[in-house]
Design brief:
about 1200 residues; alpha+beta; Serine Threonine Protein Phosphatase 5, Tetratricopeptide repeat; 7-stranded mixed beta sheet; 53 strands; rod-shaped; Trs120_TRAPPC9
């Protein structure tokens, strides 16, 4: 049974010494190690289980046994004066082999008994483990107990209990001896010589002897757990000793009665360890707070015992009686002791003071006098009367430490200071504790010149100085404690004094040879007091740190708690958060091809979307990592030293997942005084090896010769990220020419293509699933490229993956694409397009091709013009496009999440202008259902080109020259003449745009086959198609290929007019103007109108026409009416009527004659709107006349 003692520290003089029976246990042989632990230590632990014995049945009390391993000279000297100092039994222990001699062990055992006071020994034992049992013989076989081995000790407890029982019985018999007749007189060691000549028959001598014997009987009562009876006996002894003027024994009796009175007050019952916080000490039976006359409280909650001896038996009869006593004692707080008055704490202290005063009379009893002082102070301490305790120590301890007090040497004075420091530490008087600890160091190190201080001296004083740090406001708590709250070290108090105190601790550890402790204290100083230290002190500390770290083989670990076994000191860990200083932590997303987008399958209702303009410009994309993917965390680090700091083996500390951090080495630039510190962004890489929630809690590194481990206490630095399971990854290969990746590139692969406008090349992109076990599904390909309003796209997909395609592990798939060289002069340059223009590309297509392009059709900004004036001539356009391959892992999980990745291929397409279209016109064709498209084709190369169109027609175009190509195209019958009018009447601009684009695509599909012009440059051995995207994107041009509501064709004198050349006539010549009016067969309602002729001058250059009706003389009808009826017809047009107008010119000049149609209003409003919109789209031919006078016609 382990109990709580009234002892402040191990080896400290305590009140419980008076009630402990001492038994000496000595190992007489070599110790044997069992399982790495000493057998003798195990034996002592087993003996300590018998340290408390309950004695008596009717009136039970407790006897305490104290097993010691060595004797004390002071105890041997004063064994008769204070019986508790005696050794009452000896236990010899021997661990033997078969070869060891038991006889030698027995001789040692006999010598051990002789070294003790044999008269005080009541019983002894020799425990032999192993050896030859046959060798055991002798007279005292009863004392020898043999065990075959240490493990085979079934009767051990029984044997020890037998020994203790014998000791207790013999002591019980001694306390009951009749001492009324003086048979002997107890003497101290060496007191016999002073007995010569004394009258032993005198009354004074008899009182002296009776007093001493009574005093010893009182000690025996205390040892046997009967403090109440001991008080009565001590009182008798005091009366006799006082009468005999035996002051030394009187002092011992006063000490004995003080201790006995206290135990009679608090009880003798032991308090089992673990119940300390739940049981309170009761003065008699009351558990109330009592207050002395001076106002000091005596409430005690640290230890508690209940009265168990005969003096309190009457108080435990019934509950009613207890309540009565409790009410009575509430106002008294004292223990009544029969006819001898009462016992309370002040009276007990008076006994201690009287004992001290009597001890002071004898110089040779100074040590037991000091022990009495400490016991008295301990009593005040256990009563929590800390103020009186401090005052008592201040009053009585000072004389022992005075230089004139030579009874104690400096070492003994040092021990006195240590004892006082321990008391003040337990009272939480940390300044007092620090003062006496430092005073103990001074006494310990105060040696003469002939005796220099040794390393052991500094080792001894080191724990004393170290424990003083708390007295200066430095709380020595590990920053890595799980119970830490806000800060690693809570430092309060005067900083300069703290620095000095830590430096003293450092010097003592340094001179004591404690290298690791010295390093730890230096690091603590630099971390917590760096701002208070001057540069010279910092440099000297760093130099000293360098020397210390060079003495040890392994790196000193600041994270490891240092345990000094010789003094039971634990030095907490230190976090170097300054060297270097981390001011920020940022998680980086995976590489773009490894980045994961999670798609969660929601219910049928989905998420509610609420638009907010405040969300614009904020990137709230969540970051995810994946198992075995290269991941990055950025630390923002600052070096506060004035020199370059080298940091090695810098790794991250994580929690939650298995993470392999790649160690790195840094060289941080020095801080310059007066300038802002340089912040270095350090990318820490690693690989997560398990899925889950990964938390970054700190980092570790090696700096200045030590290993530093830092755990973040700033919540902003602690980052958490979700690690997804291992996902498949695509490996992409392509037939495109690859380029080196530029820094900051957004692509995984960058390619480049060079081609002439109109050329087309096919390429293949091969995708491979690199995973060994996971398939890939839902592969989607998206192309981001400049928008083209008409003609072929820049990049087109020929062959891709269908929706249900699954790419198995290690399988591959080819994707076919086509790259077409669009007209670079018509490619979009607006930054609002899908890709902004990089526009000018100053690079030749190949070494043997030198082409200078015309820039007449390009609009440049000022910045682009500056680039175009580069020494390298401009030869084309650079258009950027991106192919994005999005794919999902074929994995099943509990949350039905889909993990998607995207692989991006950047394609820089350089297009060199070759054969392009600069202008176009639409003219009437061979009949009303056809049109001629006239194209101006430019050869922008330095070589002659050949054109092939309409399957069999060829045309040569010289370098830097332009030719005109006439292409016959039929009108489109799929579109109604009112289609564009319907599109413009849509309710929104977006709908109008979509409808017009739909009509444009229909016309584009219709006319594309007619615009197929092939070109070739023989000298370069290249060929392609003339890009007509600019024409196909022109809605105004394509609208002319729609069959209009009305079409008017012309013939002059029965000859069709199909050109824009002027017809030469004379003034007065009659011209027959044959008009044929045709209507679209798409018309679904009737309408009517009139047709007449208009004569005007065309001034060109965008000027308005000048109408000159007076220059024209009409012969016959001037205005002819017509009426259109709905009829079914399979053609595109049908003829309404034919009419011949005859006229002559009055004046010379150049005139334009054009039929003019006026439609009558319809009763139906919708039909009227359709007519008004279609009126603008009438296809009416105009004839040009050059009128001259007679005689000038050639």
């Amino acid at each position: 049974m382990k109990i709580n003692s009234l002892r402040i520290a191990p080896g400290f003089p305590g009140l419980e010494d008076h009630q402990q029976i001492q038994i000496l246990v000595v190992n007489l042989s070599e110790d044997v190690m069992i399982g790495g632990e000493s057998s003798f230590c195990k034996l002592l632990n087993r003996l300590n289980d018998h340290s408390v014995k309950k004695v008596g049945d009717q009136e039970p009390h407790y006897v305490y046994i104290k097993f010691v391993t060595q004797t004390d000279a002071l105890n041997l000297k004063f064994a008769n004066l204070q019986v508790y100092r005696r050794i009452f039994a000896v236990i010899g222990v021997a661990f033997l082999n078969n070869d060891d001699s038991i006889k030698e062990i027995y001789e040692k055992y006999e010598n051990l008994k002789k070294s003790c006071d044999e008269d005080a020994l009541v019983d002894n034992r020799l425990l032999i483990f192993g050896g030859q049992k046959e060798e055991i013989n002798g007279e005292n076989l009863r004392e020898i107990i043999y065990y075959e081995s240490f493990k085979d000790t079934q009767t051990f407890n029984y044997d020890i209990q037998g020994l203790l029982k014998n000791v207790i019985i013999i002591l019980q018999s001694k306390r009951l001896e009749d001492i009324n007749e003086v048979k002997r007189c107890p003497l101290l060691s060496g007191e016999e010589k002073y007995q010569v000549g004394l009258d032993k028959q005198s009354k004074n001598y008899k009182k002296k002897c009776i007093g001493r014997l009574k005093k010893q009987i009182g000690d025996l009562h205390m040892l046997l757990g009967l403090p109440s009876q001991a008080v009565d006996i001590y009182n008798i002894a005091i009366e006799n000793l006082k009468s005999a003027n035996d002051l030394l024994w009187l002092a011992a009796a006063y000490e004995g009665i003080a201790v006995a009175s206290y135990y009679a007050l608090i009880g003798n019952e032991p308090l089992i360890e673990g119940k300390k916080g739940s049981v309170q000490r009761n003065h008699t039976i009351n558990n109330f707070d009592t207050k002395d006359n001076d106002g000091s409280y005596k409430n005690f909650k640290r230890h508690s015992r209940r009265n168990s001896d005969e003096s309190t038996k009457s108080l435990t009869t019934t509950l009613d009686e207890k309540m009565k006593f409790k009410g009575f004692l509430k106002n008294i707080g004292k223990l009544t002791m029969g006819n001898r008055g009462f016992i309370d704490i002040p009276s007990i202290m008076d006994k201690f003071i009287q004992s001290i005063e009597n001890f002071e009379r004898f110089s040779y009893s100074a040590k037991i006098e000091y022990q009495c002082v400490i016991k008295a102070a301990s009593l005040l301490f256990w009563e929590r009367d800390y103020i009186r305790c401090e005052s008592f120590l201040r009053e009585h301890i000072g004389k022992y430490l005075d230089d004139s007090f030579v009874t104690f040497n400096n070492f003994e004075k040092s021990y006195i200071c240590v004892d006082c420091a321990n008391i003040f530490k337990e009272m939480n008087f940390m300044r007092k504790h620090a003062f006496f600890s430092r005073l103990a160091v001074l006494f310990r190190l105060h040696v003469s010149d002939e005796e220099p201080r040794t390393e052991n001296d500094y080792k001894y004083v080191y724990p004393l100085l170290y424990n003083t740090l708390t007295g200066y406001g430095i709380k020595l708590k590990s920053p890595l404690d799980i119970d830490k709250k806000k800060s690693n070290f809570n430092i309060t108090g005067p900083s300069q004094i703290q620095v000095k105190a830590i430096q003293e601790v450092f010097m003592s550890s340094l001179r004591g040879g404690l290298v690791h402790s010295s390093i730890r204290h230096l690091c603590f100083l630099l971390q917590n007091y760096y701002d208070l230290l001057d540069q010279k002190a910092i440099d000297s500390m760093l130099e000293e740190l360098k020397k210390l770290t060079s003495k040890i083989e392994e790196k000193h670990n600041l994270n490891q708690i240092i345990q000094l076994d010789y003094c039971n000191v634990l030095i907490p860990a230190v976090q170097w958060t300054r060297f270097p200083t981390v001011i920020g932590v940022e998680l980086k997303a995976l590489k773009r091809n490894l980045d994961v987008n999670i798609i969660t399958k929601r219910g049928s209702y989905g998420d509610i979307f609420i638009y907010s303009p405040f969300q614009q410009g904020h990137n709230n994309v969540k970051i995810y990592w994946s198992v075995d993917c290269y991941s990055t965390v950025t630390l923002k680090i600052v070096n506060c030293f004035h020199f370059e700091l080298t940091v090695s083996n810098l790794v991250l500390l994580v929690d939650g997942c298995d993470f392999e951090s790649i160690p790195i080495r840094l060289h941080l630039p020095a801080a310059i005084k007066g300038q802002e510190e340089t912040v270095i962004d350090v990318d820490m890489q690693g690989f997560p090896h398990s899925e889950g929630t990964l938390k970054f809690i700190g980092y570790s590194c090696e700096v200045l010769g030590v290993k530093n481990v830092v755990k973040f206490d700033n919540e902003q630095f602690i980052k958490t990220i979700r690690v997804l399971p291992k996902l498949p990854m695509l490996e992409v290969d392509t037939t495109l020419e690859k380029q080196l990746l530029k820094e900051g590139s957004h692509f995984e692969t960058e390619t480049e293509v060079s081609l002439f406008s109109g050329q087309k090349f096919d390429h293949t992109i091969t995708i491979t699933n690199t995973s060994d076990s996971i398939s890939i599904r839902n592969i989607r390909i998206k192309i981001q490229q400049p928008k083209i309003s008409g003609g072929p796209q820049l990049i087109s997909i020929l062959e891709s993956c269908n929706k249900d395609f699954i790419l198995l592990p290690k399988a591959s798939k080819d994707i076919k694409i086509t790259i077409y060289g669009i007209d670079p002069t018509t490619a979009p340059e607006s930054t609002n397009e899908t890709f902004p223009v990089s526009s000018i590309f100053s690079k030749h297509v190949s070494d043997n091709v030198s082409i200078v392009s015309s820039t007449s059709n390009l609009l440049f900004s000022e910045a682009e013009e500056q680039v175009s004036h580069d020494l390298i001539p401009y030869t084309g356009r650079l258009l950027n496009s991106t192919i994005k391959i999005t794919y999902a892992a074929d994995l099943k999980n509990e949350n039905s999440e889909i993990y998607e990745r995207t692989y991006s291929i950047g394609i820089a397409i350089k297009i060199v202008p070759a054969i392009t279209i600069s202008n176009w016109h639409v003219l009437s064709g061979e009949d009303a259902s056809t049109r001629y498209i006239v194209l101006d084709v430019n050869n922008l190369t330095d070589y002659d080109a050949e054109l092939n169109y309409l399957h069999d027609k060829e045309l040569s175009v010289q370098a830097k020259d332009t030719c005109r190509v006439l292409l016959l195209c039929s009108c489109c019958g799929e579109i109604s003449p009112f289609a564009f009018s319907h599109a413009s009447q849509k309710p929104s601009f977006h709908m109008q745009k979509e409808e017009i684009e739909k009509l444009r695509r229909i016309l584009e599909d219709h006319v594309s086959n007619h615009l197929n012009i092939r070109w070739s440059i023989p000298k370069l051995n290249i060929n392609g198609n003339v890009p007509v995207g600019s024409l196909l994107s022109s809605v105004s041009c394509l609208k002319q290929l729609v069959v209009p509501l009305l079409t008017v064709t012309l013939s002059i004198d029965k000859k069709p007019y199909t050109s824009e050349d002027d017809i030469i006539v004379y003034i007065g010549d009659i011209v027959t103007f044959n008009i044929t009016l045709l209507v679209s067969t798409k018309v679904s309602f009737n309408f009517s109108g009139t047709i007449s002729l208009l004569c005007f001058h065309d001034l060109q250059n965008g000027e308005e026409h000048i109408y000159v009706p007076e220059s024209l003389i009409t012969i016959g009808s001037l205005v002819v009416p017509f009426n259109v009826q709905v009829e079914e017809d399979d053609g595109l047009l049908r003829v309404i009527f034919k009419k011949d107008f005859r006229f002559m010119f009055r004046y010379e000049g150049i005139y334009k004659v054009k039929p003019s149609i006026f439609l009558n209003k319809c009763d139906n409003i919708e039909e009227q709107k359709l007519l008004e919109s279609a009126e603008k789209e009438f296809f009416i031919s105009t004839a040009s006349f050059n009128v001259t006078t007679k005689g000038t016609k050639s």
